[in-house]
Write a structure and sequence with these properties.
Layout lengths: L22 E6 L8 H9 L4 E6 L9 H8 L15 H8 L2 E7 L1 H9 L5 H8 L4 E5 L3 H5 L1 H12 L3 E2 L3 E4 L5 E5 L3 H12 L12 E6 L4 E2 L5 E2 L6 H12 L3 E6 L12 E4 L3 H11 L5 E4 L6 E3 L20 E3 L3 H11 L7 E8 L7 H12 L3 E6 L10 E7 L5 E8 H18 L1
Parallel strand pairs: 1-2, 1-3, 3-4, 4-5, 8-11, 8-13, 11-12, 13-16, 16-17
Antiparallel strand pairs: 6-7, 9-10, 14-15, 17-18, 18-19
Helix pairs in contact: 1-2, 1-8, 3-5, 4-7, 9-13
Bound molecules: cytidine-5'-triphosphate.
The site of cytidine-5'-triphosphate (CTP) has 13 residues, from helix 11 and strand 16.
Length: 429
């Protein structure tokens, strides 16, 4: 157990990730989402990684080789018979630290699952021993087809990370599951594998409810009382939980402009009471509830129906406050009373600053006893740490008072550690 958190690391130009540059092979298959691969190249090169793009021949129907060559600074080939003297598939595969394939079509998934080596990309994948991340994109029917499901299962069994696609607008007017996640999501999730963190399907069949972001308590139609929460940690939890197989509902308050976690059902709320109502309506349907939202403890006792005007003398010089319900404590009470399942895992967050009454950890230990949840993720938010940053660190506290260090990492990495603990608690029940 560490007594004091180390100083915060300033965010860097590479999205807050400070690892050394790596050799990334970006495979691109022939789907309309191939254009998004250009932004994925950028996402990696901007953090200093070297990217070698290996498209399939059909991918070049969507994006020209010149575009990939210009963006990556490397020549582009599709066939093992291009530059035979260099035995490209062997060299590219052996030198790769990470293979990312985005988009992957149903046909490419089938060829990978069958172990085919009929072009440079599939041959390279057979040579590569590094982590492989595959981001499928296709029509919903193709994604749901038993052949595709079987190919995905085969690849996952072999240790390949096959990302869940997003739900949304597809090629035509139709929409559903099968959309390629946003480039920044693919880059961030791929970097987990480079950090040695996998996305096992250990939450498969679990229903996970996550709250994120700050609440806004209206003073009048124009003003509100709010807080500095960006919602990033809660969104990262939703992102990782979906990719680990969970059915995720995300209730989001005020957040930064963040991409919607792929495959999660997202419900928007504004105030603490709206959040309490949505959590209450859904708590019984979920196996795990994670309260990452920054809930306002108080709201103005009265919300003015029209804008308070300084000139008319209606503006108050002080605001009377009423306490909001403690949603987390209420969930623990509901579990005690049997209203929600006895096995429901309840996780809280504690954003603390040390003061005269104790250190950050002292406050967190008191909080987990007071709230009665199964796990508490505690952050030190003193001196501008955490809020709005892409990285996080802290401790995971359990009711027996033990505190496990969560080392500095991206919010997806921290989310992975939190979910590891959730899986352990679930397995012990
Ligand atoms: N929380 C909640 N309902 C509230 C306030 C907080 O469910 N009305 C939840 C938060 O989502 C978080 C945990 O309780 O998971 C701790 O929130 P925090 O604001 O740190 O705790 P408070 O109980 O408000 O304690 P204090 O402000 O005194 O630190």
């Amino acid at each position: 157990m560490t007594s004091n958190p180390p100083a915060d690391t300033p965010p860097t130009g590479n999205g807050g990730d400070s690892r050394s540059p790596r050799n990334i092979v970006l495979g691109v298959a022939g789907g309309i989402a191939a254009y998004k691969a250009c932004h994925i190249v950028r996402g990696f090169t901007e953090r200093g990684d070297s990217v070698r793009v290996v498209p399939t021949a059909s991918a070049l129907n969507f994006v020209g080789a010149a575009t990939f060559e210009a963006l990556s600074g490397h020549p582009v080939a599709t066939d093992v018979f291009d530059r035979v003297d260099q035995v490209q598939h062997v060299r590219i595969g052996q030198e790769a630290d990470l293979v990312v394939i985005a988009p992957a079509t149903a046909d490419l998934l089938a060829r990978l699952a069958a172990g085919r080596a009929d072009d440079l990309l599939t041959a390279t994948c057979l040579v590569a021993t590094c982590p492989v991340v595959v981001a499928p994109a296709m029509h919903t029917e193709m994604w749901n087809h038993p052949a595709t499901r079987a190919n995905v299962a085969t690849l996952r069994d072999r240790g390949v990370t096959v990302l869940e696609p997003a739900h949304g607008r597809l090629t035509g007017a139709d929409s559903g599951a099968g959309r390629l996640p946003e480039p920044e999501q693919i880059v961030a999730l791929s970097l987990l594998r480079l950090a040695g963190i996998g996305l096992p399907q250990d939450l498969s069949g679990r229903r996970v409810l996550i709250t994120a972001g700050g609440t806004r308590e209206s003073v009048d139609p124009v003003r509100y009382l709010g807080n500095r929460s960006s919602g990033r940690q809660g969104f990262a939890l939703a992102e990782v939980a979906v990719q680990r197989g969970a059915d995720v509902t995300l209730i989001a308050g005020a957040t930064d402009a963040l991409p919607t976690p792929c495959g999660a059902e997202v419900i928007r709320i504004s105030s603490a009471r709206e959040l309490a109502d949505e959590v209450d309506a859904r708590a019984t349907d979920h196996d795990v509830i994670i309260m990452a939202a920054a809930v306002a403890d108080y709201r103005p006792s009265v919300t003015a129906p029209s804008k308070l005007k300084k000139t008319s003398g209606s503006a108050p010089t002080s605001i009377e406050l009423t306490e909001n319900p403690d949603i987390l404590a209420g969930l623990v009470d509901s579990r005690r009373s049997g209203r929600i399942g006895a096995d429901t895992v309840i996780v809280g967050f504690a954003a603390e600053t040390g003061d005269g009454e104790g250190s950050v950890l002292d406050h967190a230990l008191r909080k987990i006893r007071r709230k009665g949840c199964d796990l508490l993720m505690c952050n030190d938010v003193g001196s501008g740490r955490v809020f709005g940053r892409t990285r996080n660190r802290g401790w995971l506290i359990t009711p027996d008072g033990s505190a496990t260090d969560v080392p500095d990492g991206t919010k997806l990495e921290v989310a992975s550690r939190i979910l590891d603990s959730v899986v352990r608690i679930t397995a012990a029940r």
